[in-house]
Design brief:
The protein has 144 residues and is mainly α. It folds into 2 domains: 1-67; 70-132, no CATH class. Helices cover 67% and strands 0% of the residues. It is built from 4 helices and no strands. It has helices spanning 3-33, 40-66, 73-84, 106-131. The longest helix is centred in the first third of the chain and has 31 residues, at 3-33. The protein is elongated, with a radius of gyration of 24 Å.
Length: 144
């Protein structure tokens, strides 16, 4: 399976698991506020599903780690802190999106942010170097 398709499938499964987890916690409350009576059978099924899903999420995270061959210890630590704060591995703190408009996953967004920072620092150094050269005159770039 193509890595992009595998990421897409993993992300969809992860988001469904998050929604089912939310539904198990808040579904009865949501339906009661809407005026529907809470159904004990539905709630029991949702709680059973939540219990099963709790054991599936670590497998998805492990598969996510395995999809990166060159992950560093710093990236692992940052990702574990991000997930420990209650965030998804398929979201990022920078709100970056890929070409399809979906949020970038955490590792790729962090790598993209690092590349942007390095390019910015290179361009800042180039501007600083050119402004301090001895043969540069203040009107060199004027068209007349």
């Amino acid at each position: 399976m193509d890595i992009v398709k595998q990421f897409s499938v993993l992300e969809d499964i992860y988001r469904l698991l998050d929604y089912a987890d939310w539904l198990a916690d808040n579904g009865a409350l949501h339906f009661q506020k809407s005026g529907y009576p809470a159904r004990l059978e539905r709630d029991n099924v949702l709680w059973e599903l939540k219990f099963k899903l709790k054991h599936m999420k670590p497998h998805i995270v492990d598969t996510y780690f395995l999809s990166f061959k060159d992950i560093t210890e710093e990236e692992k630590r940052d990702l574990q802190e991000w997930v420990a704060d209650g965030n998804s591995i398929f979201d990022n703190p920078y709100c970056y999106s890929d070409e399809s408009g979906r949020p970038m996953d955490f590792i790729n967004a962090c790598r993209f942010n690092t590349e942007l920072y390095e390019e910015y620092m290179k361009s800042a150094n180039l501007v600083q170097d050119t402004s301090q050269s001895d043969d540069w005159d203040w009107d060199d770039d004027l068209p007349f």
